[in-house]
Specification:
Layout: E1 4-7, H1 16-38, H2 42-54, H3 62-74, H4 80-95, H5 105-116, E2 120-124, H6 129-137, E3 150-152, H7 162-171, E4 179-183, H8 186-194, E5 198-202, E6 215-216
Parallel strand pairs: 1-2, 1-4, 2-3, 4-5, 5-6
The structure holds the ligand CSCCC(=O)C(=O)COP(=O)(O)O and magnesium ion.
């Protein structure tokens, strides 16, 4: 019996193209100016040092740090300091109304339905917890943060590592087998399954599939599943 749902964002409840074609280019456009202007801010300084750490070069110049960050955006690398900085940068875009956080209509209906049935909803995304809050605060449906009980990002571990799902389950008041993890990415579902969670793939954009996980194309098909 499912008591809690942990959902991925991009590709699961949010269109991939919103992240790849709107959020990532916005971050790339504003990153250099943001990092230079805010390099003395404590939370930004921490992430700049974390980039130097990732580069194994404590002496890396700010130019080197910026070049690495821009390369990681281009390659869609889920490197924690990049994801944390992207969250800071997107704040201005959301607050100026440059975009709203995309949520699929079927996902919005599904999240509301599960919430009304007292299923606890959590988020686990490579996007930082700050970025998650921004997307849900400024979503296509207004502020929908009330739907979620908690948020996890790569600070708990990478999404393709079973230990990350074990750590999430340890923070929830349910055994892993009562937790359903939703994602579009098979490697993430494999990791969650290895941690004893139930899994369900959202298959919206022709992603690779696997016999190991049930799959649906839209949450409208959820009720027909016997989970
Ligand atoms: C929180 S919105 C930004 C999403 C993002 O930056 C990202 O890398 C998407 O990763 P996900 O784990 O949600 O597929
Ligand atoms: Mg995803």
């Amino acid at each position: 019996m499912i008591k809690a749902i942990v959902t991925d964002i991009e590709g699961t409840i949010t269109r991939i193209s919103f992240v790849k074609d709107i959020l990532f280019p916005y971050a790339a456009k504003h990153l250099e100016e943001f990092v230079r202007a805010n390099q003395q801010r404590d939370d930004v300084k921490t992430q700049i040092d974390a980039v130097r750490n990732e580069l194994n070069n404590p002496q890396a110049s700010l130019d080197d740090v910026i070049a690495a960050l821009l390369g990681w955006i281009e390659a869609d690398k889920k490197v924690t300091p990049l994801k944390q900085l992207q969250g800071f940068i997107w704040q201005a875009g959301y607050e100026h109304g440059d975009f709203t956080g995309h949520i699929y209509p079927d996902a919005y209906a599904f999240l509301n339905e599960q919430n009304s049935q007292n299923i606890d909803l959590y988020v686990y995304s490579s996007g930082s917890v700050k970025a998650q809050h921004l997307l849900f605060t400024h979503s296509d449906y207004g502020d929908i943060r009330h739907l979620f009980k908690g948020y996890f990002d790569t600070q708990i571990g990478a999404k393709q590592e079973p230990s990350s799902y074990q750590a999430i389950a340890a923070q929830l008041p349910y055994d892993a087998q009562h937790i359903l993890f939703l994602s579009d990415v098979v490697a993430e579902l494999d990791a969650a399954k290895a941690a004893d969670m139930q899994t369900l793939q959202l298959w919206r954009d022709n992603q690779a599939q696997s016999d190991m996980h049930p799959a649906i194309e839209s949450f409208e098909q959820f009720k027909a599943l016997s989970l």
